Amino acid sequence: MTASEPTPTIYEWLGGADALHRLTEAFYAHVHADAILAPVFAGMDADHPAHVAVWLGEVFGGPAGYSAHHGGHAHMASRHLGRGITEEQRQRWVTLLMQTADEVGLPTDPEFRAVFAYYVEWGTRMALIYSGPNPPPVLEAPMPHWGWNQTPPWTG
After folding, report:
1. What digits encode the pLDDT tens for the residues 17-34?
2. Which of 42, 73, 91, 101 is 20 to 30 A distant from 27 in Cα terms?
3. What pTM value is reported for the model?
């Protein structure tokens, strides 16, 4: 990239839809074999990995497919209500996703990995909050958009 070229989005940098589909397919295959996470996803729909790939794409600056076809942030947040996710499950999800990012060849540069890890930490902590006893109002939650030097504000 030269100084005259625009900075790519996180979505473009990580390899777009193909890379996200590789990531989520491999990740959820690992989830099913994981003693800590398998119970959380026991009834998972077969399309779940593809939906998560579309979610991540939108979050990282790609097409707004999740908002257009799956209900945006309100739908994603509602999928976590009442699930009672534990801190141990959240931490395992983070660890396994980061390991899978290595496995499928997502970029390893520190700038990308810092942004990616920041989102994964933030997103899993939001899932923990939404799955707990006093979740914030689902309908008021905006779709998060993650960039190189910006993150959505916490409004809780």
Report:
1. 999 999 999 999 999 999
2. 73
3. 0.90
